[in-house]
Amino acid sequence: MPDIETIIKKLAEPITDELEVDLMGILVAGDKGAKRVRVVVDKKGGVSVDVLRSLSKGLSLQLDAEDLIAGKYHLEISSPGLDWPLTTSQDFMRYEGDWLKVSFTDGRPVLEGENLGLDSAGCLRIGTKHGEQMVDLKQTQKIIRTINWEKVAGRQKQKKSNAKQKS
After folding, report:
1. Which of 44, 78, 102, 103 gets the most CB atoms within 10 Å of its CB?
2. Is 161 within a domain?
3. How far, in Å, CA of 145 to CA of 100, rounded?
4. Which of 34, 54, 78 is the last residue of a domain?
5. pLDDT digits (tens, 9 = 90+) for 104-125
6. pLDDT digits over 129-145, tens only?
7. How far apart are CA 76 and CA 78, in angstroms?
8. Distance between CA 42 and CA 19 in Å, rounded?
9. Is 87 helix (H, G, I), strand (E, B) or coil?
10. pLDDT tens by residue, 36-63
11. Residue 124: how many CA atoms within 13 Å on its side-chain side?
12. How many CA atoms within 13 Å lie on the side-chain side of 116?
């Protein structure tokens, strides 16, 4: 018999397909008294609150109709956040252009740069200030999105400069 996460995934997929979002993960945790069902979804450009609300309503109705979870449960629908690890080719396509932080299994220093996508061999192309670098995914421990603080700081300086010019 399939586990509860697999059953919930099958219930959620038609709804996520209709809402045009990617189902990234399902986690069911807690004891018999109060389970927490966490469903993580996203799409290129992010998901709106209305989409999250629609998914929550639709999946909640499905879960209640199927009576899968004995007792009370709390359904949590969310987007992944920056610390969600990128693991699939869909992840790298969805977040192409985003700033990534790559940790390696062999102890090399962390690499940060722009996600330029995967090449035909499945290697990650990272754009850094030193040019494009290729990363073999088999040699990575974890890849997450992060914020390019140099770019953010540059925008702040530009805004201040523009404000001074207008004065």
Report:
1. 102
2. no
3. 4
4. 78
5. 999 999 999 999 999 999 899 9
6. 899 999 999 999 999 99
7. 6
8. 11
9. coil
10. 999 999 999 999 999 999 999 999 999 9
11. 35
12. 15
